């Protein structure tokens, strides 16, 4: 191998190449403000303006816990990400949206999962709230009894709605044990 008059490590060569690539592709700082739409509404704000249903929450998740002030949440993701999640015993879900409670197509499909699993449905919106509640959290010591009270069709619908919920594996295991 031929010796060069200067030594450069492979790591240094990669760094120099990376910095050159970044420098060549990075726009000037003055362009960043123009390209970022400074002063323009964010993507989230534009979606909310385009879809009024995104502006206001539809549901209120009121959770019970031995800790004081666990609070109420407006999305299921907020329940799951709460620092007090592991202390939550259960949640009651209520509709707080504007206007009468009418299920969306996706929500209606979730209710149909329970129907197809053998549940007789007389109040679709109320059943959806029950399914949504089953997706939040149930204290482990009460899980089997609560799921038995809800029934396999509701548990199947909860898993259809939130297959990646924190307690999804427990719900699946309960269903498997039911046969």
Short description:
The chain is mainly α and 179 residues long. 50% of the residues lie in helices and 8% in strands.
Question: What would you say this structure looks like, in words?
Answer:
With 179 residues, this protein is mainly alpha-helical. 50% of the residues lie in helices and 8% in strands. It is built from 9 helices and 3 strands, in the order αααββαβααααα. Strand 1 (59-64) and strand 2 form a beta hairpin. Helix 5 crosses helix 6 (124-134), helix 5 (105-116) runs antiparallel to helix 8 (152-161) and helix 6 (124-134) packs across helix 8.
List the helices and strands and how they pair.
Blueprint: H1 10-25, H2 29-35, H3 43-50, E1 59-64, E2 72-73, H4 76-81, E3 90-95, H5 105-116, H6 124-134, H7 143-150, H8 152-161, H9 168-178
Antiparallel strand pairs: 1-2, 1-3
Helix pairs in contact: 5-6, 5-8, 6-8, 8-9
